[in-house]
Amino acid sequence: MIIAMKVGSPEVEVDRLCNDLEMNLGLTPEKISGRYKVVIGLIGDTAQLDPRQLEEKSPWIEKVVRVERPYKRASLEFRQGEASEVVVSTPDGPVVFGLHHPLVVIAGPCSVENEEMIIEAAQRVKAAGAKFLRGGAYKPRTSSYSFQGHGENALDLLAVAKEKTGLGIITELMDAADLPKLTEVADVLQIGARNMQNFSLLKKVGAQDKPVVLKRGMSATIEEWLMAAEYILAAGNPNVILCERGIRTFDRSYARNTLDLSAIPVLRSLTHLPIMIDPSHGTGRSEYVPAMTMAAIAAGTDSLMIEVHPHPAKALSDGPQSLTPDRFDQLMQEMAVIGKTMNRWPQQEPVLA
Questions:
Q1: What is the pLDDT of residues 97-155, one digit of tens each?
Q2: Strands 86-90 and 93-97
Q3: What is the pTM (predicted TM-score) of this model?
Q4: Phi, psi of 39, rounded to the nearest 5 degrees
Q5: Mean per-residue pLDDT for 58-81?
Q6: How many other C-beta atoms lie within 10 A of the C-beta of residue 317?
Q7: Burial of residue 177, with CB atoms counted within 10 A of its CB: 0-12 exposed, 13-18 middle, 19 or more buried
């Protein structure tokens, strides 16, 4: 259940109402300050509450609405139809993920292989206009014999790349035991498709402050995905970004996965959370990435995660889906055209190396 306050409601009245609801009704009120108004989310047993009685508690209440969806905090109703923003602090300054902000581009290799490679990749994607460097330190692989990542040593290399370029760092968390080490380097934590429903892990990242990119499971429905996001939100972390990275369907002859771009408008109708698209994992083939990138911008994504490797043919993981730095430079120029049309491109043009 949510209480929408009228525009201009005094803060002292909002606080008084929250105290009343907590002390007298045993509910946990969550105050959400939007662009124009304040909304109070009520967590607890509200089944027997009459919305009309709640409306009588303050003349500043505009309306009381029940949230019928099983995911409460993730629902669009929880913010009265207003899209939320995730603000990430980076060495170069804050970057905002959200509907009313410029498109955010994340780029880099699937995994951190060595210092020379990750520094070169970081410098090239930064010069092209990316705001974050992606790179896996711990790699969840289908085969136990495939490259698993360099672990803590890779985190050290990501820290060096961050210092040299000013890029924010996004890297994947696989085990809660690694959380303290990752948070020392990463500005955003990624929960991969294989861990989307690892609920104990979701609770752990929900209990810390770093923003979280939650990738859709390869066979997950949109509701299951949003229910997974609810675990993070319910644990206290409001900074969740949903990443569509392709789902497994009946035809895998031509592409690695089926990139579900219809998820963008569907999510817009269901949730306030920012949306990210990963066309690299979504297709598995570098030649398909540019087309799906452009389509994702046209469909209204808030951000893109694109794999870029200085030498894809020599990559230890996911080389076939990685763009070269030169192709990424070209793609960023192509993206600017449609990004400007959609009013989602920064005013300052990227400076290419």
A1: 999 999 999 999 999 999 999 999 999 999 999 999 999 988 565 565 555 556 788 99
A2: antiparallel
A3: 0.90
A4: -120, 140
A5: 89
A6: 19
A7: exposed
Cα angle: 266, vertex 106, 177; to 5 degrees = 90
CA distance 131 to 106: 6
3-state secondary structure labels for all residues of the chain:
CEEEECCCCCHHHHHHHHHHHHHHHCCEEEEEECCCCEEEEEECCCCCCCHHHHHCCCCCEEEEECCCCCCCCCEHHHHCCCCCCEEEEECCEEEEECCCCCCEEEEECCECCCHHHHHHHHHHHHHHCCCEEECECCCCCCCCCCCCCCCHHHHHHHHHHHHHHCCEEEEECCCHHHHHHHHHHCCEEEECHHHCCCHHHHHHHHCCCCCEEEECCCCCCHHHHHHHHHHHHHCCCCCEEEEECCECCCCCCCCCCECCCCHHHHHHHHECCCEEECHHHHHCCHHHHHHHHHHHHHHCCCEEEEEECCCHHHCCCCHHHCECHHHHHHHHHHHHHHHHHCCCCCCCCCCCC
Which tens digit of pLDDT belongs to each residue from 14-62?
999 999 999 988 888 888 887 777 888 888 888 788 888 888 889 999 9
Q: Which domains does the chain have, with CATH numbers?
A: 2-66 (3.30.70.1140), 86-341 (3.20.20.70)
Contacts (Cβ under 8 Å, ≥6 apart) of 253? none
Q: How far apart are CA 212 and CA 191, in angstroms?
A: 7
